[in-house]
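Blinded run. Sample ID left blank on purpose so nobody reads anything into the name before looking at the predicted structure. Input follows.
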Amino acid sequence: MYISQVSELLDQAVKTRKNKGKYFNVLLEGDAGLGKSMAVQQWAKKNKYQLIDLRAALMERPDLLGFPFVDKDSEDIPRTKYAIPELLPTKGKGVLFLDEINRAPNAIQNIFMKLLTRDKFENGYEFPEGWLIVGAINPDSEAYNVNSMDTALKARFVPFEIEYNQKAFIDYMKACNFNNELIRYVESLFVYRKPQELGDSDQYISPRNIEQMNEFMQTGISYKSDLFRKVSQSIFGQLASEFLSFLDSDRPILFLDFIKDESLALKELKKSNKTSKDFRGDKISVTVNEIIDNFTHAHVTDEFIVKVISVLPKGNASQLLQKYFVFKGFSKDIPKVKKFIEEYKLSKIFPKISDIFIMD
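Blinded prediction complete.
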């Protein structure tokens, strides 16, 4: 499952609770930094649910069972009772989020078993109907210092393995207005690798690290500064050299580059055709997609499109032409465009060349 699907999953969990369901407790399992906790927090905020975040590894038995006190029963005999812990919900609607539950010792994990089946506690506490229980854990592997969850405990959850999804993460970056160059780096070069895929000296790089880098870049610090390079090395580890090289010279031409200095951007785009084949295609694809995403911008004119097509490789030029024709067409009969259509054999896609022009 991808992190972008968690919201829909929790929507369905709410429906099971409304149908008096007791056992559909969602457990998100995945590597660190993939956004498990954030997805739950964002869903709760969006749906105006209260959120109680319990870090099981920091808890002791009284935190869940309640602190003992002595009270007399109906026969005036002193009895030990337990107060209902303040952190447990009693009314309304919300999410009891058991984050990193498998980092808790087994004694604490066992207490959760009764809570997960909505059984009544000895102190009279009952889990309110308007609340969900959601857990999140890292895998039980050498990469993480966790305790194995008892089979009976894990059976009280419905587990879902969370995987990294490149497109979903890029969409999230764009929606959150991440630094544009950082977005382009992830689009064109970044490859997510699980902890078990790394060498002994390699640093695990997750979406959380990219968020850290974005927060630092948003301060406006110069990419050329020594501090920027040191922070990049700290956050990106073995990927820092690749990232810094990307920012220095190897990054794609962005749409903003055309707005700042169109002639220079076209010159650099033409130069990109001479870079290594392994990287060239990715760089130019990013540039083309940038232009397509900004078709509505005033800078995108017929003349601009023709200039860009003139310096693009055949495949990318054909893609841009097709998208532009479908989006807008050309406002006048431009000879160069007809030449491109014939050269790239686009007449198969547009049988009547005259039909694709919007004549003055």
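Unblinding after everyone has recorded impressions. Residues 100 and 137 are 5 Å apart (CA to CA).
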